[in-house]
Every structure is written in C-alpha cells, then in structure tokens.
Amino acid sequence: MEEILNYIGGKLLEPQSNQYIDNYEPATGSVYSQIPNSDEKDVAIAVEAAKNAFPGWSNTPASTRSAIMIRIADLIAANLDTLAAAESKDNGKPVSLAKSVDIPRAESNIRFFATAILHFASEAHIMENSAINYTNRKPIGVVGCISPWNLPLYLFTWKIAPALAAGNCVVAKPSEITPYTAFLFSKLCIEAGLPAGVLNIVHGLGASTGNAIVSHKSVKAISFTGGTTTGAHIAAIAAPMFKKLSLELGGKNPNIIFADCDFDKMIATTVRSSFSNQGQICLCGSRILVEKSIYEKFKTAFVEKVKKMSVGDPADPETKMGAVVSEAHMNKVLSYIELAQKEGGKILTGGQRVFLEGKNKNGYFIPPTIIEGLDENCRTNKEEIFGPVVTIAPFDTEAEAVRIANSTEYGLAATVWTSNLNTAHRVAANIESGIVWINTWLLRDLRTPFGGVKNSGVGREGGFEALKFFTESQNVCIEL
Ligand code: NAD
Question: Per-residue pLDDT tens for 142-152?
Fold first, then answer.
C-alpha cells in the first residue's frame, strides 16, 4: 500500500507518531493509500522549518521567487496526465474534468501569482509641502493554508501561490479525504528547487493537524476554505491570538432565470452549474428560481437533459459524472434527498444511489437529482447539501425572486439569466452575495475579488486582494 508522506523542511517525512490513516478511492470504495496522521509534533517541526526559511525567502528578490514558481507551474503542465489521473482516483471526479479544469487551474494559479507579484506595488500619500507617506507591504512570516476536498489541487494552490509569491513561508494542509495530488505537488516543488522550508505540507485530520496549525502561536495568518462550521471554529481559536483570517465557506447559491433569457444557452449552462463535479463546487447553483411564464418549458427541457446524464467510472475519459467523494458524504447527500421528500418535495429525476458493475460496484454514485414543490423556507432549501441535488421553483416578480434568493444565511455566488441589462444590474446589486454571474457561470478572471458575504465567509481571495491579505501594510511617514 502506498504511503503518502509529509513535506517538511524540503524533505518527504513520515509522521513522528508513525500513525497513518486510510485513503479511499470513491469510485471503488476501497482503500488504496495511506496518509500521515500528523499531530502537533509534526506541525511544530513544520512551523520551525518555515520560520528558519523565512529570512531567506522574504529577502529573495521577487523576480527570483517568481522564476522558481514558474518552474513549479511548468512541472504541473508537464505532469498533467499523471496529476489528472491521480485527482480523479482520489476524489471520484471524472478524469476529463480533472484534466480540463482542476490541474490546468492549479498550474495557472501558480503562474498567475508568480507574475502578479512582479506588478504588485503600493501607494504613496503626499501631504502637500510637509510630508510623504508610503506604504510598505511586508510578508507576514509563517502562514497556514487549509483547503477542502472538492477541488483538491486547484484550491490548495489558490492559497499557497499568493502566500509564497508575497514572500511568506507556508504550513499547508490539504483535506485528509483528497491528499494525493498535494503529495505529488510536494515532489514537484523539490524538483523545481523551491528552497527547503518555504512550503511545508502536513497531512492529517482537521481536528488534530488542522487544529494544531491554527493554534500555533507562530502561524500569523490563516487562509481557510471549507465548511461554515469549521470556519467558525477556526475563527474562535484565531481571533484571541489576533491572527489575520481569510475564510471561504459554504454556499446555497440561487440561479434566477427570467423569461427573456437566451433559453438554450441558459439550459446548457444550468445543467453544468447544477451538476459539475457531482454538484460539489461551492459555486454550484442549488436553488433554481424560474419566472412563472417559462417554468413548465424550463422544467421539461431541464429534466429531459439531466435524465440523459449518467454516472460512470471516473477513469473513463467519456464519463461526465463520477462518484461523490466519500461514503459519509454520499450518506449525507442521500439523507437530504430523503428529507426533501418528507418536506413535500417531488423528485423529478435521480434520487437514489446507483450501483455500477465490476470494479465500481461499491463506489459512491448518486445520479443528478432534481426536486420541485418545496417551500423556500424548508431545510432542503436552506442548508448546504453540496452534492448533485437541486431544487426548482417558479416566481412571479423580480422582487419575489430577489427575496427568495436572499433568504438563506449564505451569500457566496448567484447566477442571473436575462437579456434586459437593467434587470441584470438591478438584480445583481440587490443580491446578497460576493459573486454574481450574469448569463454565464464560473467564468473566472483570477484578478477579480473572490469570496462570500454572510455565513459564506470573510475576506477576499484573488488578484491583489490575495497579495494584500498575505502582506502586512506599514506606513512610513517622512517629514520634509
Ligand atoms: P471541512 O470544513 O470539513 O474541511 C476543510 C478543511 O479543513 C480540511 O482540510 C479539514 O481537514 C480542515 N479542518 C476540519 N476541521 C478543522 C479544524 N477544527 N481546524 C482546522 N482545520 C480543520 O470542509 P470540506 O467538507 O472539506 O469541504 C466542503 C465545504 O467547503 C463546503 O461547505 C463547501 O461549500 C466549502 N467550500 C467553499 C469554497 C469557497 O471558496 N467558499 C470552495 C470550496 C469548498
């Protein structure tokens, strides 16, 4: 059985305790590798390595840091097939998706911040005839990056890249559910010549390894992506220690579809925004609100398209829907489908676990599921399910659609479909979310601010926002 190792101080290391955790392949339900069950001793060694590396790395010219990071990006590109196959096996996502989205995005995350740092400048504030202030943006020191299982290497690199580019040293933890590509990434960092201790990857459980990173007094900032409850727990530990925090949390995103939209484009995109990555993207729209005059037309077309989608072996290049990430997560999603029925929902397609044949017979497969007939205030419409499950409902007026869209505690992303520019701007402005897509979905420019409002998080990632997060501003005032 292959053992995944920690990456600490430039070396691949066993955990101090020699304890390991089983790592499952979701498409077969079998254990295929083991990951270190790291504890606070491993974290302490990683933090020490990062502290030792910080003076050197933070004083390395940005152009040299950039060049090393570009070598890492090149190595990701050169290993696309291996990384995509590994991501698919570890997460259950179709290999075609890992190859077209996850791994290319991991590469561009590194490349983007490797070059962004070359253009990152700070302000000067001039007091007429009396003084000049300038803002000195300094790296923070040792920072912690903790990421989830849904887009493993994609989100892991999205945090690490700006932290490293800005001159910090990092102690990072990928999800224990999908650790494999982070392990392969550590080997690429060694090959690219990243100096020892600049990046340290410690594998293990959230409650022990993750908690130890968050609690360590020398870790001065935490960038976390994951569930809202975990985010609240992390904030409670970090706040009294005055750590900088960026929290990217859960969502319950609305899609608002007006009758005047481009219907064909809307339907094709809505299928994607509902079920890409088995619905396990924080940005997936899970509450679909449709203007009443086209509700029946929408329902017929949407259900017909979705019924044609079938789950399959993620390793097959033709598969469009793979397995959900774990048995526990599959059971959670199925329990929500059961709840939806108890709440009065009608399943229009999907709804039950699917058993495939052969090596996939014990895999965790749920077909795309559409539910209608639910009240906007029921739990199914309020709580994050994070699987291939959407609800559909009609609305009468724009005001009603906006009210329903805003009626959850979350505020991550929203999608609006209309050909009326005024409607688009007005609805976007009135929606409580960090991101609004109009007539599109998941179109990303890495320079834009990314993050949520309400229980979907605090802080923004992306572009210079991320570089600002990973630096501390110091004002220097010179009297003339
Ligand atoms: P999770 O909160 O269970 O775990 C996320 C990470 O935090 C993992 O690495 C985990 O080990 C670690 N962790 C868990 N408990 C911890 C603790 N006490 N201290 C420190 N670290 C701890 O989330 P998940 O189930 O892996 O991911 C799914 C969630 O992530 C969903 O809610 C989804 O919406 C959210 N998500 C949000 C975004 C976004 O950008 N807002 C993106 C992707 C996923």
Answer: 999 999 999 99
DSSP string, 28-93: TTEEEEEEE---HHHHHHHHHHHHHHHHHHHHS-HHHHHHHHHHHHHHHHHTHHHHHHHHHHHH--
Where are the chain's structural domains?
2-249+456-479, 253-445
* 309-350 pLDDT, tens digit each: 999 999 999 999 999 999 999 999 999 999 999 999 999 999
Domain covering 253-445, topology = Aldehyde Dehydrogenase; Chain A, domain 2 (3.40.309)
Which listed residue (25, 107, 176, 248) is catalytic?
A: 248
pLDDT digits (tens, 9 = 90+) for 8-61: 999 999 999 999 999 999 999 999 999 999 999 999 999 999 999 999 999 999
pLDDT higher than threshold 90 for residue 1: no
Cβ 201 under 6 angstroms from ligand 1: no
Q: Is 103 in the pocket of ligand 1 (CB under 6 A)?
A: no
What is the SS3 assignment for 22?
A: strand
Cα distance between residue 154 and residue 106, in whole Å: 4
Active site residue 123: no
Catalytic entry in 282, 291, 384, 461: 282
Ligand 1 mutation pick, 101, 175, 460, max ligand atoms within 8 A of CB: 175
Mean pLDDT of 106-115: 98
pLDDT in tens, 451-464: 999 999 999 999 99
Question: How far is the CA of 127 from the CAs of 161, 242, 442, in angstroms?
Answer: 36, 32, 43
If you measure from the C-alpha of residue 281 to the centroid of ligand 1, how many angstroms do you get, rounded to a whole number? 12
* Cα atoms in the Cβ-side hemisphere of radius 13 Å centred on 139: 27
Helix H, strand E, coil C: the string for 365-398 is ECCCEEEECCCCCCHHHHCCCCCCEEEEEEECCH
Is 432 catalytic? The answer is no
Across the beta sheet with 457-458, the strand order is 11-13, 6-8, 199-201, 169-173, 142-146, 219-225, 244-248, 457-458
Nearest atom in ligand 1 to 282's CA: 34
User: Is 2-249+456-479 assigned to CATH 3.60.15.10?
Assistant: no
